Amino acid sequence: MYYIEDKEFGRVLLTVRRNMRNMTMRWKGGTLCMRVPEGVSRADIERVLDDMRPKLRKARGKDSLAYRLGQVIQCYGFTISLAEQDRLPNQIIFSHGESNVVVSVPRGIDLDNLATKEWISKALKVVAHDRAAQVLLPLARSITRRVGVAPTRFEMGRGLRKLGHCTPGRVIQLSENLVFLPSDLIELIVCHELAHLTHMNHSPQFHALVDTYLMGRERELEKKLKTFAWPVVR
Fold this sequence. Notes:
By secondary structure, this protein is α/β, with parallel strands linked by helices. The chain folds into three domains: about 1-65, no CATH class; about 70-130, no CATH class; about 130-225, Zincin-like (2-Layer Sandwich), CATH 3.30.2010. It is about 40% helix and about 25% strand. It has five helices and eleven strands; from the N terminus they run E-E-E-E-H-E-E-E-E-H-E-E-E-H-H-H. It has helices at about 40-65, 115-145, 185-195, 205-215, 220-225, and strands at about 1-5, 10-15, 25-30, 30-35, 70-75, 80-85, 95, 100-105, 155, 165, 170-175. The chain has a four-stranded mixed beta sheet. The longest helix is centred in the middle third of the chain and has 34 residues, at about 115-145. The two termini are about 30 Å apart.
């Protein structure tokens, strides 16, 4: 057992197995753990790491998530509570209230399992899909009134990497997953797209306009968004 340093993932724990043919890897507590055949070269290890980077990035996101029973996830305009149920052993059950949605997982399920985390994450995105237009569109319209510009219309999308988009036809698309953000970060995304109605680029003039719409907080909010801990797999 030994470590190597990777340019992206940091310290990677390697465990040598005599009778292995292929390398395996998984995240554990934020550390990438690899099992490798005896005699494998460093070059081969690095080649496999490079080939697997996209999948490893996604898996790392799941590993960093921590779900627990009784957890309350604060969304914009409502909350999501995690509970357990013993009625349907292979399903997640949703219970919708006016300001809270209860997401109940099967009793005894391993919440630390990566597949379980992805399953719960997908359930949370289902809730976002159901609730997003109801809570996000009124906020977006109030922001347009405040800044004095308006798109042709707002539409809802499902992106997690691309949270907003302004089309050449002046239609602004907002991701349903914005519901997981606090109101000031939602406002950042909306103002960013509203500024594209004037500047369809990311020029200094564009950012100056975004900063004006946000009353001087663009850099502060961009930094906050980069470090935001999403409650779902991105």
